[in-house]
Design goal:
This protein has helices at about 5-10, 35-45, 60-75, 85-95, 115-120, 140, 165-175, 225, 230-235, 240-250, 255-275, 295-300, 315-325, 370-385; strands spanning about 80, 100-105, 125-130, 145-150, 180, 200-205, 215-220, 280-285, 305-310, 340-345, 360-365. The protein has about 375 residues and is of the alpha/beta class. The strands form 2 sheets. A 7-stranded mixed sheet has the order 1-7-6-5-4-2-3, sandwiched between helices. A 4-stranded antiparallel sheet has the order 8-9-11-10, with helices on one face.
Length: about 375
């Protein structure tokens, strides 16, 4: 099955029934009932190796449908849902953490991951090195105690591109698993496991749900690294609500057409932005001038709706603030991946490279509005900061 057919046909519940609804049903539950003690005992044995109904917090059949769909899309062995994308990243890090362990994390990782490192991992004796966003210096940073490489590509805010086959080859030659935050690609634009990645994290909050009304995260893992991953929500008490899971499943039916439209409109916006002398740099991986553009084209189906600009010399952060305050169709707000356009003044959180002399930056999420309306809006807001 090709991806569009998978998105249409998979994760829809028990298809062996003679009569059934199109969609998977929402099973809300805390307590699950067992006919007798033997059934209860069998379930406790089965859940060690299989995805079975045992207790609501471990997920119900609704959750299992989304986990199966994500595994089918990404080529994973098993998937586990978490209440947010950030919780998913935290659980991946925790799963490999031990006193004396060393982690390598690429510089363009989702910003809040740095707080997990500073406030928790470093305190319990995990050593962390942030490496270049394109992971080009990974080999020299590997140590005998390196237990995990966590990367993000395209990266947060500036969309830096990593050569994943190359990174995985180096990591695996040292027996180190590779995890990626693949929220940018959201199981559609890139399938990291095809390139050797072991663990894929996706914030379902973004494009999978697609409507800015739910938070959720997923970790999709290959067979080799699955060990222990299903214990995490059990040990820490994390779960994902079946109602939220239903919303994500519903959103995913239109993932493909939404992402294609986000990309198309983003390209039109980028063409317009290129004509403006208020702007010095446009960060968008489809541009030939984008670093590692050739790797992006080789591995990805396309771009999503994220575009970041750096204003030209002479424009201050006050100008950038005035610009976003004057936008009418772009709203100011965290997150992205919904149907609506957003714009925020931002600073890329980076430590392996120095961006302190650059900017000001504005990050856009290009929504599903008509591109002509968005361009008019950008034009009027740019005119207001001129001269
Ligand atoms: C938003 C985001 C997350 C976190 O998702 P939440 O559900 O908001 O916690 C993780 N990674 C990336 C790249 C994101 O953009």
């Amino acid at each position: 099955m090709k991806i569009d057919t998978k998105l249409t046909h998979l994760g829809r519940g028990d298809d062996s029934l003679d009569v059934r609804a199109v969609n998977a049903s929402v099973m809300r539950a805390s307590t699950i009932l067992f006919k007798n003690h033997a059934a209860w005992q069998k379930c406790r044995e089965d859940r060690k190796t299989k995805r079975v109904l045992s207790y609501g917090a471990r997920g119900t059949t609704t959750n299992f449908e989304l986990e199966k769909l994500l595994c089918e899309l990404e080529g994973g062995y098993r998937a586990q849902l978490f209440p947010t994308g950030l919780a998913s990243l935290a659980m991946v890090l925790l799963n490999y953490a031990s006193s004396g362990a060393h982690f390598i994390i690429t510089d363009a990782i989702y910003g809040p991951v740095r707080a997990i490192c500073e406030n928790f991992l470093k305190k319990v004796g995990v050593e962390i090195d942030f490496i270049k966003a394109d992971a080009s210096d990974v080999e020299e940073k590997i140590k005998p105690n390196t237990k995990l490489i966590l990367c993000e590509s395209p990266g947060s805010i500036l969309y830096e591109i990593i050569d994943l086959p190359k990174l995985c080859k180096i990591a695996h030659s040292h027996n180190i698993p590779v995890a990626i935050d693949s929220t940018y690609s959201s199981a559609y634009l890139l399938h990291p496991m095809e390139f050797g990645v072991d663990i894929v994290v996706i914030a379902a909050t973004k494009y999978l749900s697609g409507h800015s009304d739910v938070t959720m995260g997923a970790v999709i893992v290959n067979e080799k690294e699955w060990k222990n991953f299903d214990k995490l929500p059990e040990i820490f008490g994390f779960t994902a609500s079946p109602d939220d899971v239903y919303l994500v499943l519903r959103g995913m039916r239109t993932l493909s057409i939404r992402l294609q439209r986000h990309e198309q409109t983003a390209k039109e916006i980028v063409n317009f932005l290129q004509t403006r002398n208020e702007i010095k740099t446009i960060f968008f991986p489809c541009l030939k001038t984008h670093p590692n553009h050739d790797v992006f084209v080789r591995d990805h189906k396309g771009a999503n709706g994220m575009v970041t600009i750096e204003f030209a010399d002479g424009y201050s952060s006050d100008d950038a603030i005035k610009f976003v305050d004057n936008l009418k169709l772009f709203s100011i707000g965290a997150s992205w991946g919904g149907y609506e356009s957003l714009a925020t003044v931002t600073t890329p959180p980076r430590t392996a490279t120095d961006w302190s002399k650059r900017g000001p930056f504005v990050r856009f999420h290009i929504g599903l509005e008509d591109s002509k309306d968005l361009i008019s809006d950008l034009t009027q807001a740019l005119e207001k900061i001129k001269g």
